TrEMBL record, chain A:
Gene: EXOSC3
GO biological process annotation, one example: CUT catabolic process
Annotated family: Belongs to the RRP40 family.
Span of domain Exosome complex component RRP40 N-terminal: 30-66
Organism this protein belongs to: Scleropages formosus
Protein name stated in the entry: Exosome complex component RRP40
TrEMBL record, chain B:
Protein name: Exosome complex component RRP46
SUPFAM superfamilies: Ribonuclease PH domain 2-like, Ribosomal protein S5 domain 2-like
Sequence ranges assigned to domain Exoribonuclease phosphorolytic in this UniProt record: 18-137, 141-205
Gene Ontology MF, one: DNA binding
The encoding gene: EXOSC5
Family affiliation: Belongs to the RNase PH family.
Subcellular location: Cytoplasm; Nucleus, Nucleolus
Primary location: cytoplasm
Key words of the record: Cytoplasm, DNA-binding, Exosome, Nucleus, Phosphoprotein, rRNA processing
Oligomeric form and interacting partners: Homodimer. Component of the RNA exosome core complex (Exo-9), composed of EXOSC1, EXOSC2, EXOSC3, EXOSC4, EXOSC5, EXOSC6, EXOSC7, EXOSC8 and EXOSC9; within the complex interacts with EXOSC3, EXOSC8, and EXOSC9. The catalytically inactive RNA exosome core complex (Exo-9) associates with the catalytic subunit EXOSC10/RRP6. Exo-9 may associate with DIS3 to form the nucleolar exosome complex, or DIS3L to form the cytoplasmic exosome complex.
TrEMBL record, chain C:
UniProt lineage: Eukaryota, Metazoa, Chordata, Craniata, Vertebrata
Family: Belongs to the RNase PH family.
Keywords, in A-Z order: Acetylation, Cytoplasm, Exosome, Nucleus, RNA-binding, rRNA processing
Protein name according to UniProt: Exosome complex component RRP43
Superkingdom of the organism of origin: Eukaryota
InterPro entries per record: ExoRNase_PH_dom1, ExoRNase_PH_dom2, ExoRNase_PH_dom2_sf, Exosome_comp_Rrp42_subfam, PNPase/RNase_PH_dom_sf, Ribosomal_Su5_D2-typ_SF, Rrp43
Length: 239, 226, 277
């Protein structure tokens, strides 16, 4: 069906590359195509608008995997934000995008008009976007659709927050991530990973926290073998 | 940091011979996208910030505000740089899908490292690679090609400073990657219509090589995650 | 109704006209606005001209001063053009240092003087290595309604043709320059370039002589400058949407006919002011 497309999967594509489905007969185009990040649909054509590796998830999802650094909010994504100001009943949260996101004080578990959540300027919040599009101010919430916190909310009284590339974040967040598995073997630690490229880590000691942070940062441009070798070396050197 | 440096050598006998090209992406840590582009001895470093917060006075309601700064190797930027900035900015605006990031600002800073001819085309190439590295949505790519017509009427592509000085006319074009159309054109010296058409044709041929070079550079950059 | 449509959907408003092959001001796609020229309007300048293309008004004054020639080219003089877009001419320009558009226009005019060879810089030399003329060509926009570059080129050319420089001799004994204001000589204008600007709508439709509104709605603008030998002196397209070779050829042929029209206009105006002197 998407033959012209499928054999490009796993290859590098550049903006301006066009895949046309116009040659196919209209009735044979039964399969629907879902365009993920970096792809745009234009009639019978799919236009690439970001450089990166073309990925495919059966049956019909395609996207471009790129190593971008600037975060662009997307609905449903969970991010780590920093509360910057309190404006009336909402908090302004810096998520690293082009605009600050707003977060209502009612969007926390168990919050009511009387029972306000304890959020201070400078706090870290793990929250989810419920509004994120190019025309509106992005809005965050710290509850899921059932009103439960589900892991979201204010966190991180100590620990370390740092930035990595968005590509690495996605690699950390895949279920059964190799990197996370390898790291877990070294020593126990807590980690929060936001889709906006922010990672927060806390281990038993400051030294261990720094080791985890440095290892994650160095994972950016390493192949699996290089990473394994590095982790082995660290495991050997650690008390 | 990731290294995607490689070299492209083209047989010098063909009419659209280019100097040795080099490119590296993501070499700076602070900008959201960066690149360095080398054409022979001409070298330009580019950094892109954005989409970021925009000043209210510069806000455009339906697209991103693009700002281009060209920093010369020595001294302050002057009228010449301002004219080049305008050319680079409007070329980038044509390629970028800036309506996807309304009310935000994009800034592109081009630092000239060394000028040995074909400077504007090198700036355009560095700009395109940096925009691509920043992951900004683009409808097409573009590249810059400079052509010089020497005293004997021969067309020299990607001229050095010396060749530029000896030339009778000098033209720089920006070519887009989808239809090979002329996005930008700026010229010096006088020339006939026929010479212009020839230069455009030669630039379009040269652009094929540059776009292939772009693809090879990006492929090298992503080689570890393939 | 029409006014509301124009304010709410300016692009759609223009498109509906372009579909009928005409423009909101009643012109056809390939029609220039009425161009008028007044030469010698500033009596205190050595040469001047005022050009109106529709509402766009540009005035150019030439001031000649004496200076020592540049050391790297002792037999040449200087030509220093400057384009000024004061806040007076449009609300889009703010007071303060010149903006990008003004600087880009200045650079364009400076490049054009070199490219087209309007004046041989050797002609401005009075005595090699000692004394030469500096021509300050100040171009000021009084009313901005698009197509600035065309107006600037016509104003510059007409002002240069109008300029009269006094005879200067160097006294052999005192080594001082002696100016004889009674003996005036016109400049030797060798080439007469004329520009034609075009705007591209929706990547396809090309219109000539865009107004300010058309410029801001268009996807690209192009300026083609030709001289009397039908050679191109500049093909300036600062960016925007791509243009096919055929469209470019159309623009060039239109520029060639425009060159003849403007040349005729300048010559007529020059002739009409001659008898008074």
């Amino acid at each position: 069906m998407f033959d012209s497309f499928k054999h490009k999967v796993g290859e590098v594509v550049l903006p301006g590359d066009v895949f046309s489905f116009a040659s196919l007969a209209p009735d044979s185009r039964v399969e629907k195509l879902i365009c993920g990040p970096g792809l745009r649909r234009n009639g019978d054509e799919v236009l690439v608008c970001k450089s990166g590796v073309l990925r495919h998830k059966p049956p019909n999802l395609f996207w471009v995997d790129s190593q971008q650094r600037r975060y662009v909010p997307a609905k449903g994504e969970s991010v780590i934000g920093i509360v910057t100001t309190k404006v009336g009943d909402t908090f302004k949260v810096d998520v690293g995008g082009s605009e600050q996101a707003s977060l209502s004080y009612l969007a926390f578990e168990g919050a009511t008009k009387r029972n306000r959540p304890n959020v201070q300027v400078g706090d870290l919040v793990y929250a989810q976007f419920i509004i994120a599009n190019k025309d509106m101010e992005p809005e965050l919430v710290c509850i899921d659709s059932c009103g439960r916190a589900n892991g979201m909310g204010v966190f991180g009284t100590d620990g370390l927050l740092f930035r990595v590339s968005l590509g690495l974040v996605r690699r950390l967040l895949v279920p059964q991530s190799e990197i996370v598995k390898d790291l877990e073997r070294l020593f126990p630690f807590e980690m929060v990973v936001g889709m906006n490229g922010r990672v927060w880590v806390r281990a038993r000691t400051t030294q261990q926290t720094l080791i985890v942070a440095n290892l994650l940062e160095s994972c950016e441009n390493m192949t699996a073998e290089q990473r394994k070798a590095l982790f082995l070396r660290v495991a050997g050197g650690c008390p | 940091m990731h290294n995607a440096r490689n070299a492209m050598e083209v047989e010098s006998s063909s009419t659209c011979a280019l100097r040795e090209f080099g490119c590296e992406q993501s070499l700076l840590s602070r900008p959201d996208g960066s690149s360095s582009f080398i054409q022979g001895d001409t070298s330009v470093l580019a950094g892109v910030y954005g989409p970021a917060d925009v000043k209210v006075s510069k806000e455009i309601h339906d697209r991103a505000t693009l700002e281009v700064l060209i920093q010369p190797k020595v001294g302050m930027s002057g009228v010449r740089e301002r004219a080049q900035e305008q050319c680079v900015r409007e070329t980038c605006e044509a390629a970028l899908l800036s309506s996807l990031h309304p009310r935000s600002s994009l800034s592109l800073v081009l630092q000239i490292i060394h000028d040995d001819g074909s400077l504007l085309s090198c700036c355009l190439n560095a700009a395109c690679m940096a925009l691509m590295d920043a992951g900004l949505p683009m409808g097409c790519l573009f590249c810059g090609v400079t052509c010089a017509i020497d005293r004997d009427g021969r067309i020299v592509t990607d001229p050095t400073m010396q060749q530029e000085k000896e030339s009778r006319a000098l033209m720089t074009f920006a070519i887009d990657s989808t239809e090979r159309k002329v996005l930008m054109s700026t010229t010096k010296g006088s020339f006939s219509v026929n010479e212009l058409q020839q230069c455009i044709a030669v630039s379009q041929r040269a652009s094929e090589k540059i776009f292939q070079f772009y693809r090879d550079s990006v492929r090298r950059r992503y080689s570890k995650t393939l | 109704m029409a006014a509301g449509f124009k304010t709410a959907e300016p692009l759609e408003y223009h498109r509906s006209f372009l579909k009928e092959n005409c423009r909101p001001d009643g012109r056809e796609l390939g029609e220039f606005r009425a161009t008028t020229l007044n030469i010698g309007s500033i009596s205190t300048a050595d040469g001047s001209a005022l050009v109106k293309i529709g509402n766009t008004t540009v005035i150019c004054g030439i001031k000649a001063e004496l200076a020592t020639p540049p050391t790297d080219a002792p037999n040449k003089g200087y030509i220093v053009p400057n384009v000024d877009l004061p806040p007076l001419c449009s609300s889009r320009f703010r007071p303060g240092p010149p903006g990008e558009q003004a600087q880009a226009a200045s650079q364009f005019i400076a490049d054009l003087i070199d490219s087209a060879n309007i004046i041989q810089r050797e002609d401005l030399c009075i005595e090699s290595g000692k004394l030469s003329w500096v021509l300050y060509c100040d171009i000021m926009c009084l009313d901005y309604d698009g197509n600035l570059l065309d107006a600037c080129v016509i104003a510059l050319l007409a002002a240069l043709e109008n300029a009269q420089l006094p005879e200067v001799t160097i006294n052999k004994e005192t080594e001082l320059a002696e100016v004889n204001p009674q003996k005036l000589h016109p400049l030797n204008v060798t080439k007469h370039p004329v520009g034609s600007s075009f705007a591209v709508f929706d990547n396809t439709i090309v219109i000539v002589d865009p107004t300010a509104e058309e410029e801001s709605l268009s996807t690209a603008t192009i300026t083609v400058v030709t001289d009397e030998d039908e050679r191109l002196c500049a093909l300036h397209k600062p960016g925007g949407s791509g243009l096919s070779a055929e469209k470019l050829q159309d623009c060039i042929s239109r520029a060639v006919t425009r060159h003849r029209e403007v040349r005729k206009l300048i010559e007529e105006v020059l002739k009409s002011i001659k008898p008074q002197q």
